[in-house]
# Entry
Amino acid sequence: MPVESAILLAGGQSRRMGRDKVRLPFGDRLLVTRVYETLAEVFPRVLVVTRQPDFPVREARCIGDRHPGNGPLEGLASGLEALGSRVLLTACDMPFLNPTLLRLLSEQADDAEAIVPCSPRGPEPLLAVYSPRVLPALRAFLAAGNRSAMQFLGQIPTRMIPFDQIRRVDPEGASFRNLNRPEDYLSALRDLPSDDSQPRT
# Structure
């Protein structure tokens, strides 16, 4: 059965960016609106994990972390507990998500607790499919004070999708591009297609 739910992580503190990523303008809309709308093209349910009570996408269903301060894996755990189903996990600072890649990920067989695509730089645990079966191990991992997504993947049944397969639908791996620093943001703005850069009427 295809994955029908996505978790959008929007609860970070944006320290390296120096300003709130959730409020970053990106062409004709906010960065987070662009990511949310791309997810909504593919997934009937999009759950936002955020600490902002006034999240700017009005139609979004939002929850907060059960245990704030534990990083992206806490967002995954809180989202899985709320949804109770397989999910695609992604973050609010990935503006070039490819819907065809999202569909490819959503159609993966449920043969592992995590299904993780690889970019040229390696596994990408923050754009991956997770089963609710990970929850006991994930809660134990977080309770022990661990935060590393890559380390967690080493403790659960995980299937990697090599980049040779990913590049068939996303040749440059643009979906994995995330905006951590001001220079990343400015570079992404320069690469924004011209038809996305004008205000909508």
In short: The mean pLDDT is 93. The chain has one domain: 5-192.
